[in-house]
Design brief:
The protein is α/β, with parallel strands linked by helices. The protein is built from seven helices and nine strands; from the N terminus they run E-H-E-E-E-H-E-E-H-E-H-E-H-E-H-H.
Amino acid sequence: MTPHIEAGRGDYAETVLLPGDPERAQWMAETFLDNPRCVNRRRGALGFTGSFRGKPVSIHATGIGVSSFLIYAFELLDFYGVKTLIRTGTCGGLSETVALRSTVISSAVRAESATSGQVFGLYQPVGPDPALHALALRRAADLGIDCSAGLTICSDIFYHPDGRARFDEPIALGALAVDMETSALYRIAAQFGARALSLLTVVDHIATGELTDYSERQALFGDMTRLALEVAAES
């Protein structure tokens, strides 16, 4: 076990899906995995291991934001020997070409500022594993999933004093969406020589002002979860 995860060595598969919300982690595991078992309850960051189409897959909640995400990602990579991390998160839409409730594949991510991402503070775009990215695009097309791929922005701050204006530059650069973890995902995966991919569901839209209700959100994540698991099974 680690300071934040009570599971033993061997309790996690080499591929782990990373939602932020523990309730979403449980829903994903119970809805899509065969024979899921809970391997972590410490601090409420639920972790599960089961299989999808015969391949072992784990799902582990990471909480909100870079700081929480990095703790779990680091321990999974360093102690449990995880090789592939696939984020299954939420995002805010920035481009009007991206529909509310659709799936976004982060082809590259840029931190919101030079200090975003804390220890991973390089203010340059970073991206996913190319093979995982290409596979996700193919499987999304095969499954008929409403999906967009492109630049995303990663922010450390949800309630920002500048409001929507802080996204003027990212929107001008063609950014599709903003989340709070993807920059950390791609950078820590590179640090460990692991593979990573970020899949995001648009739950609110900064450009249009649209917003989903929390009560419908688990139902929104079906396409994203299926896509992530198909990528996990084939990679």
